[in-house]
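Much of our argument rests on the idea that a fold can be written as discrete symbols. Part of our work consisted of pairing the sequence of a single chain with a tokenised description of its backbone. We regard such an encoding as a compact summary of how the chain folds. The amino acid sequence and the backbone structure tokens for this protein are reproduced below.
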Amino acid sequence: MKVNDMDVLVCDCEGTMAFDGKALAKACGGDGDEHATQLCRAQLQRFETAAKGSKRLLIACTQEAPLFLEAAEDLGEDAADLRFCNIREKAGWCGEQAGRASTNLTAKMAALLAEAALDIAETPAVNMSSDGHLVVIGEAEHAIAAAEKVTGRLDVTVLVTDRESVLPPRVITHPIFHGRVIGARGHLGAFTLKVDGIETASPSARGGIGFDGAPGEGELECDLILDLRSDPPLFQAPEKMDGYEDPNPKSPGAVANALLQLVDMVGDFDKPRYVDYDAALCAHANSGIVGCTRCIDNCPTGAAQPKGDKIAFDPYVCAGCGACASTCPTGAAKYALPAGDALYVRLRTLLSTYHKAGGTHACLLLHDAEWGEDMIAAMARYGAGLPAKFIPVSMNAVTQVGLDFLLTAAAYGAERIVAVAGPAQSGETQALEQEIALANKILAGLGYGTDRIQFTDDTDPGALESRLHGLTPYPGLPKAAHMAMGRKRSVMSQALKALHEHAPNPVDSIKLEAGAPFGAVIVDTAGCTLCLSCVGACPTGALKDNPDAPQLSFAEAQCVQCGLCRNTCPEKVINLEPRLSFLASAQEHQVVKEEEPFKCIRCGKEFGTKSTIEKMVAKLQDHPMFAVAGGTDRLKMCEDCRVIAIAEDDTQPLAMGSVPTPRTTDDYLREREELRRQAEADMKEKGLDES
């Protein structure tokens, strides 16, 4: 059997799976039934034969992947490149009878195999290097004991936070300081601790450990940090900061586990560059005026920070939750794991393959690649497993999902979508839940019904299993086949078009809540002076001017409701109206205001706009500089005539005031002599002699 020009080996795991070999081969575009029963043991020779005769080989088993990789290594250079796919826990181990499979279950297996055979581009990465320099912070009793456990494995420095009398090590193998940490920055391999009152341990202290030297402020640089203080963590989301551990210092097990993690963090590490950022699309700020701050507000680690009018994403601090990409209204921040449009390609492959294989009522379970996989395995081993119609979609973090993905999945025919987040993402799902609520509102507004998309943080596999099996069929969605490509706005536009074309209630517009990334800009044209500040501030080109005439136009489909136009407008005549319009007119620029240009009162040249000049004259007519008769006439002139008028009205435009006479040393001496003579005269007048 071949999928995407890749040979496929399928095993029914000794007949324990609900499985139909002939139907699966047919669904994958082949015929016959060549599946194995115990590929990893009794039929390993079959794997070896296939691995020798193939360039690329997909094995429908993940549990025994290490065994297959070891066997392939023994085959040498002739072995095929191996890839693995789990159709057992995700499909075959379910409530259906072993040896048989429903059409939906077979279609799901085919979809999973087709997805696994896709060629996905690698995600760009950043390199972090750690030489193993560890700083242990905490009370002397705990910090010194922890440092002793890894001496010889790591280069350790101890920073104690108390002055309690503690017996120092018999042989001091690492530097010991005293001080208080007042700040920390950096990442794995490049941490910097700012320390107040830092002192060095005294080598001659006779009793407990002592310190000498003048306390001062200093910095400690290190690769790793073990924080055994009882104070708040030094970093946001400390559990996501590689190289930083802050266990309970009173729990020996927790401290030992943290040390074990740190010992493994020596060497060079490649970390995915999770965010692909296009500053040209960013709606954060313009000329210092702030608009959108969603990525900053939702970043748990502080990796997204303002930098001028744009955003700086620190790839070393970013933990890959994807909340920035999920909420970014313009698509300036795009999640890059997987790279490019691979997530949409996977989604399209899964659903189109499922439908082509005869599957009905397709549903999606969105889960992460660690905790979510464990939940699915637990349901399969001890319960009824996933329903046949539920296709699992594994991703790095469920919180990377945004409105673009949800609407595209609905347009591709996913009747229900359930996103499940694990405990590690507790407190980080607000953005995801908001995106789900918005997607449900749009689908409901188009007549597709309510609550098609759900979020859950169930930690009990039984509870999640009951939830999924309790969801009834919810037909009515289209089965679009378009290729979702590009940034967020482009992907959403394609999905919305498909959903509107097949909508039971194809309304012209849907009213949305404040904060939605769709809407109109409402301009009070009576107060607008056509200064066009809003045009310069708009990051998406939704507001546009006309170079040939005083005119302001607006294209609603391009507006992301960032508010930069409203915040920039000097006249404060702009308001936002969140809504989603499906009208054709929303795709094109519509004139908001236009007027005749103002003509120079001297030469007739067109310059500026009538409302702008009239407002300027009204504001300045009582100013002392323009109080004389005709004082404001120059404001009504073009740039050339204004200069001519100044020259005509001022007969000596280059005249200067009187030139001051330079003072010399003689002037100062003369003044001093005059003062002396005046003093003598005053003394004589008073009858006083010179003495």
